[in-house]
């Protein structure tokens, strides 16, 4: 199963948390085993390590002991009759040093190199732990790990070591790398991202009058992010004018919510709220929106002229859909969802501060790009850095954004497109004849229809709650069985859709179960 399906999300933070959780599980298993020794991200069995120490051949115990002695004495100066010895520092890279032992070259191929490096570092670590005081040996040399990765690991030998402040000798210090860096320069000024206002804010979510007669006023309007954050909702001007005429600029009223297919608490279903009324407009305040309400959810509102109660209802979709990481079972406005469901926006606030490069790119494309009726947003790629930061950012920040764009295009969370720019500098899509072409990057909501089980006839109500979406996944076959060609083809299509890079053929002994829903 892909990581995105395993954690149920495609956001950077969710994927990172899921991946680190999986790696922590593996690391915990390796570290808790009494039969293993670990070095960094590698593990070897204690039996193979003991066997190696007892081996007298190439890279066996004699060579490992020789390596440990060489590192211990590498910085010890030759004795002089007159004067004091100057400080000496020597760095020993494990990989190149192992290649110097006779007969070692053939043993350092493929996995053999990783195993030999792991055994050598464990030997050095055991010597440092057992024969020194925090890395300080009797010959006054201090031995510490300097780099746990490069060239199989780099160890630092320094004499005299008693002049240095003691520290954990097995914690990589990076002194060798630091010594190669130029003089510290003034750091490049980093700037914070800005939150540009939505250019089409006034045109998003315009209400639609459904009915206005002697009995009632009914209208339809999408929920906006500001409504969720601050707990309010605008009244239709007809309703606001008539309520003000009869009750004055402020009155206590009641809100009744109906959310078919979902269960609301009593406090959510019926709420005491306030109506703030101007001459031409008004709004309800003090609303506690249900937790699963989101920006773009379409609401239908009714006001009976003989009452002060406002009734609000959502409309179930015939077939629920998955939009990115969200399952939506009710009618919604895709334009509002694209604009206000972007990274950094939720019912607790709306800010780009603290977002990583990929999230900043996605947020800017969705909030600033040209917007179509289906929620497709396209942005001139050249203006993205200034749109994120409000002005030209630091070079390192611009490079990070370009890298993030490439990554998002590679995993198909964004898609490339071609537009044009007119004489006033405005971008257009599709490209217009006679205008210079410009590259665009586009966000298109990934919608998947949730398929109902065979024979299901329910269109709404409790039946929807029993449905469970099952992502495509591998399943082990019984011995002697093999997958059908249909499942092999389905797996290839699944891999193509995910952008899987390491082969699209089913592993031996497995078949592929396509995504489906189950339940009643």
Notes on the protein architecture:
The chain has 520 residues and is α+β, with helices and mostly antiparallel strands. It is 30% helix and 25% strand. It has an eight-stranded mixed β-sheet with strand order 6-7-12-13-9-10-11-8. It is elongated, with a radius of gyration of 33 Å.
Task: Present the secondary structure layout.
Layout lengths: L2 H5 L4 H21 L3 E4 L2 E4 H9 L6 H13 L14 E6 H6 L11 H21 L10 E6 L6 E6 L15 H5 L28 E5 L3 E7 L2 H6 L1 E3 L2 H11 L2 E9 L7 H4 E8 L4 E4 L12 E7 L4 E5 L2 E8 L2 E5 L3 H7 L4 E2 L2 E2 L6 H12 L1 E2 L5 E4 L3 H6 L5 H16 L4 E7 L5 E2 L8 E7 L3 E3 L18 E3 L2 E4 L8 H14 L11 E4 L2 E3 L2
Parallel strand pairs: 9-13
Antiparallel strand pairs: 1-2, 3-5, 4-5, 6-7, 7-12, 8-11, 9-10, 10-11, 12-13, 14-15, 14-23, 16-17, 18-19, 19-22, 20-21, 20-22, 24-27, 25-26
Helix pairs in contact: 4-6, 12-14
Q: What attributes characterize this protein structure?
A:
five-stranded antiparallel beta sheet; elongated; eight-stranded mixed beta sheet; 15 helices; alpha+beta; 520 residues
Coarse morphology: elongated
Strand arrangement, largest sheet?
A: 6-7-12-13-9-10-11-8
Helix % is 25-40%
Taking the alpha carbons of the first and last residues, their distance comes to 25 Å
Strand-residue proportion: 25-35%
Main structural class? alpha+beta
Q: Averaged pLDDT, please?
A: 87
Q: Would you identify the regions where 5 or more consecutive residues have pLDDT less than 50? A: 451-466
- The count of helical stretches stands at 15
User: What does the radius of gyration come to?
Assistant: 33 Å
Number of E strands: 27
The profile of the biggest β sheet is: 8 strands, mixed
């Amino acid at each position: 199963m892909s990581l995105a399906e395993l954690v149920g999300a495609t956001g950077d933070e969710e994927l990172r948390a899921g991946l680190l959780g999986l790696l922590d599980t593996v690391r915990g298993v390796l570290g808790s085993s009494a039969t293993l020794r670990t070095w960094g991200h590698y593990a070897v069995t204690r039996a193979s390590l003991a066997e190696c120490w007892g081996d007298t051949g190439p890279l066996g115990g004699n060579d490992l002991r020789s390596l440990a002695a060489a590192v211990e004495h590498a910085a010890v100066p030759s004795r002089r009759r007159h004067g004091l010895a100057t400080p000496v520092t020597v760095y020993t890279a494990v990989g190149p040093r192992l290649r110097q032992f006779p007969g070692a070259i053939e043993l350092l191929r493929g996995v053999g190199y990783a195993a030999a490096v792991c055994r050598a570092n464990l030997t050095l670590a055991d010597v440092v732990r057992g024969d020194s005081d925090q890395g300080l040996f009797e010959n006054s040399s201090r031995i510490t790990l300097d780099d746990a990765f490069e060239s199989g690991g780099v160890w630092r030998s320094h004499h005299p070591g008693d002049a240095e402040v003691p520290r954990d000798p097995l914690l990589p210090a990076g002194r060798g790398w630091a010594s190669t860096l130029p003089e510290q320069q003034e750091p490049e000024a980093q700037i914070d991202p800005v939150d540009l206002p939505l250019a089409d804010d006034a045109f998003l979510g315009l209400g639609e009058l459904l009915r206005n007669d002697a009995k009632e006023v009914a209208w339809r309007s999408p929920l906006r992010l500001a409504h969720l954050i601050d707990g309010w909702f605008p009244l239709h001007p007809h309703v606001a004018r008539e309520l003000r005429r009869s009750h004055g600029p402020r009155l206590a009223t009641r809100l009744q919510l109906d959310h078919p297919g979902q269960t609301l608490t009593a406090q959510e279903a019926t709420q005491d709220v306030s109506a703030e009324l101007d001459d031409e407009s008004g709004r309800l305040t003090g609303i506690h929106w249900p937790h699963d309400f989101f920006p773009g959810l379409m609401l239908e509102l009714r006001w009976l002229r003989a009452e002060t109660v406002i009734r609000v209802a959502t409309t179930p979709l015939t077939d629920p859909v998955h939009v990115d990481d969200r399952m939506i079972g009710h009618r919604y406005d895709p334009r509002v969802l694209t604009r206000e469901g972007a990274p950094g926006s939720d019912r607790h606030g709306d800010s780009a501060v603290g977002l990583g490069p990929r999230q900043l790119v996605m947020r800017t494309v969705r909030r600033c790009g040209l917007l179509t009726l289906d929620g497709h947003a396209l942005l001139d790629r050249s203006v993205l850095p200034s749109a994120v930061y409000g002005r030209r950012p630091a070079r390192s920040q611009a490079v990070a954004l370009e890298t993030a764009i490439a990554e998002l295009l590679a995993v198909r969370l964004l898609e490339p497109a071609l537009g044009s720019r007119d004489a006033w500098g405005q971008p257009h899509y599709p490209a217009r004849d006679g205008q210079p072409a410009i590259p665009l990057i586009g966000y298109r909501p990934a919608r998947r229809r949730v398929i109902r089980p065979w024979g299901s006839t329910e269109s709404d109500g409790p039946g929807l709650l029993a449905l469970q979406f099952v992502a495509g996944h591998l399943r082990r076959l019984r011995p002697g069985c093999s997958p059908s060609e249909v499942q092999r083809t389905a797996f290839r299509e699944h891999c193509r859709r995910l952008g899987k890079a390491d082969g699209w053929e089913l592993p031996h002994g497995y078949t592929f179960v396509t995504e489906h829903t189950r339940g009643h």
